Amino acid sequence: MAKLTSKEIVDAIKEMTILEVKELQDLMKEELGVDPSAVVAAAPAAGAGEAAEESATKTVVLKDAGATKIAVIKVVREITGLGLVDAKALADKGGNIKENVPTDEANEIKAKLEEAGATVELA
User: DSSP readout, the chain?
Assistant: First the structure.
């Protein structure tokens, strides 16, 4: 098998859907024992200009977990790849779920969290 360069890998990730990137992330966790969520989340924006990146990105902020905290913790773990203790602390105190994500992805994350019962805002 030919060895791919880092640029070729990033170019391939740019062409993936969010679901495909999530599957890649899960496979990397399982096969390699690493959590690539920060790298994978930043990859789609890697080719964009800085000014365009700033205006086209959002930070997803969890304000309140609501009455269904367990469901919110599950979604937080799914989105961030955090362990149970860290996800619970984030659900208890609130805070940034993901920073500098594309607007479309931020809206999807917000929808998932709100469906679980959380109060979320995009900054």
Answer: -PPPPHHHHHHHHHTS-HHHHHHHHHHHHHHH----HHHHHHGGGTTS-HHHHHHTEEEEEEEE--S-HHHHHHHHHHHH---HHHHHHHHHH-EEEEEEEEHHHHHHHHHHHHHTT-EEEE-
Q: Which two tokens stand for residue 67?
A: 């009455």
Number of domains the chain is built from? 2
Assigned domain for 52 exists? no
Do 117 and 73 fall into the same domain?
yes
Domain extent at residue 121 = 57-123
Output the pTM of the full model. 0.54
User: What would the pLDDT profile of 1-55 be if each residue is shown by its tens digit?
Assistant: 578 888 888 888 888 888 888 888 888 888 877 766 555 455 555 554 444 444 5
Q: Which two tokens stand for residue 27?
A: 């496979």
